[in-house]
Amino acid sequence: MDQDLTTLAQLQAGKLIGATRLKLSCGLTEFPLDILDLADTLEILDLTGNRLTSLPPDFARLRKLKIAFFSDNAFTQFPAVLGQCPALEMIGFKACQIETIPDCALPPLTRWLILTNNQITALPRSIGTCTRMQKLMLAGNRLTHLPQELANCQNLELLRISANELVEVPAWLLSMPRLSWLALSGNPATQHGQVVADLPEVPWTDLQVAEVLGQGASGIISKAQWKTPDAVTKPVAVKVFKGEVTSDGVPEDEMQACMAAGAHPHLVQVLGKISQHPAQKQGLVLELIPAGYRNLGLTPSFESCTRDVYPAGTVFPLREVISIASGIASVAAHLHARGILHGDLYAHNTLVNETGHALFSDFGAATIYDKTKPELAAALERMEVRAFGYLLEDLLDHLALEEVAHETVSSLRGLQQACLQPQVLQRPDFAALVTQLTAITQIAGIGTPQV
C-alpha cells in the first residue's frame, strides 16, 4: 500500500509522464484524473482492489491503452466509455458488482474479457461486433441465455460460463469453429442427476499436513501424511478448496469431476474426500506425484492470450512427443467415456517426467455432461479434440531439430490438422486418436507409446 501511495503522489506531481504501465491499489473512490495526462504513452492500467464505481467521460483519451484491470472494485455497470477506447483489447472486471453492460460498451478490438463473479443477467447483442474475441470469462454470474450474436465471434477459443443460470446449451455454440476450452458446469442446462462414485471419507484428524506444494485458483495443495484405516502412514497430497467462485467455476463442481474421473495411468489418483475439516471446507486426498515430474508448459501470456508458452530453448525428442500425446489422448478418451469434459486441456495442466510419461491434472473447468444426448456428447468431445490439436502442435513445433524430417512427423502433422479443422463433427474422437497414434508409433518403429 505504501508503494502505491508513493506512486499516486508521483502521478499527481507529474513525475510519471511517459509511463507505459501504471498500477494503483490504495482505496481509491474516484478515478485520478491525472492518469489522463499519460494519454500519449499508457498501455497497461491496473486499478484492481479499489472502491471505484465509475470512470470519467473522457477516459477514452487514453488512446494507446491496450490492457485495463478494474477487478475488486464497486462498479454496478460496465463503463460505457470503454467502448470508445481505440486500442483496448484486454479488460478485467472480476468480482465487482456489475449487473448490466450497456450496448456498444465493449471495445471493438476486445480479445480477452474477464467478467467473472459479478451479477450480470444478460450480455449486450453488440458483443457480436467483437470479432477478435478469443477469451471470454463469465463464470459466476446470472446469465440465463447467451445472445445469438455471440456466434459472430468466430475467433472465440476459450469460454467460461460455469455457475450461471443457463437453461440450455445453444446449438450454435457447439459448432463454433475455434472453440477449444469450454467450462459450463453449475448451470441448469448441465444438471442431469449425475451419480458420482462414492469415495472413502478421510477425517481431517487422520492427516498430518506439512508444506504447501502449490496453490491454484480453487484451492491449496499440501504434502501430508495420512494414517490410513489399516494404521499405515502414507505420504499423500491434500487439496483443500477455498470455496470461492474462480475464473473456471465453483470448487464443488471441480470436486465432483475429480471423483467421477476414476482411475487411469495418466491421472493423479484420488484416494478420498476430506471430512470433519475444522473450517468446514471441502477437500480431496490425492496420490503424491513422484519426484521428477515437471510442468510441460507455462500458462498463456498477455500476448499469446489462449496459447501456452514455453521457456526459450525448449526441445522435445520425438519419442517424448509421441509418449505425451498418446498419454493425453488416452486419458481424454477415458474422461469422455464417462461424460466428462475437462475444459482445460493444456500443457500447463500436464506433468511429465524424463521418460515422457504424462500426468493430467486440474479439473477446475470440468463439466459432467449427459452422455444420453449423442449430439451434445459428440460436439463436446470434438471441441476438446481441438485443444488436443493445439497441444500436439506445440509439441511438434518444439521438436528436436535432428528429428524434424523423420517420416513419423508428417503423419503426426496430419493428425494435428485433423484435430484443428473448423468443422467440429469432422474431427476424430479421442478413441480414434489413440488408435492412430499407436499405429503411427508401431509403423515408425519408435516403440510402444505409454497409454
TrEMBL record:
<dbReference type="Pfam" id="PF13855">
    <property type="entry name" value="LRR_8"/>
</dbReference>
<dbReference type="InterPro" id="IPR000719">
    <property type="entry name" value="Prot_kinase_dom"/>
</dbReference>
<dbReference type="InterPro" id="IPR003591">
    <property type="entry name" value="Leu-rich_rpt_typical-subtyp"/>
</dbReference>
<keyword id="KW-0067">ATP-binding</keyword>
<dbReference type="InterPro" id="IPR001245">
    <property type="entry name" value="Ser-Thr/Tyr_kinase_cat_dom"/>
</dbReference>
<dbReference type="InterPro" id="IPR001611">
    <property type="entry name" value="Leu-rich_rpt"/>
</dbReference>
<feature type="domain" description="Protein kinase">
    <location>
        <begin position="207"/>
        <end position="451"/>
    </location>
</feature>
<keyword id="KW-0418">Kinase</keyword>
<feature type="binding site">
    <location>
        <position position="239"/>
    </location>
    <ligand>
        <name>ATP</name>
    </ligand>
</feature>
<dbReference type="InterPro" id="IPR017441">
    <property type="entry name" value="Protein_kinase_ATP_BS"/>
</dbReference>
<dbReference type="InterPro" id="IPR032675">
    <property type="entry name" value="LRR_dom_sf"/>
</dbReference>
<dbReference type="InterPro" id="IPR050216">
    <property type="entry name" value="LRR_domain-containing"/>
</dbReference>
<protein>
    <submittedName>
        <fullName>Protein kinase</fullName>
    </submittedName>
</protein>
<keyword id="KW-0433">Leucine-rich repeat</keyword>
<dbReference type="GO" id="GO:0016301">
    <property type="term" value="F:kinase activity"/>
</dbReference>
<keyword id="KW-0547">Nucleotide-binding</keyword>
<keyword id="KW-0677">Repeat</keyword>
<dbReference type="Pfam" id="PF07714">
    <property type="entry name" value="PK_Tyr_Ser-Thr"/>
</dbReference>
<dbReference type="Pfam" id="PF00560">
    <property type="entry name" value="LRR_1"/>
</dbReference>
<keyword id="KW-0808">Transferase</keyword>
<dbReference type="InterPro" id="IPR011009">
    <property type="entry name" value="Kinase-like_dom_sf"/>
</dbReference>
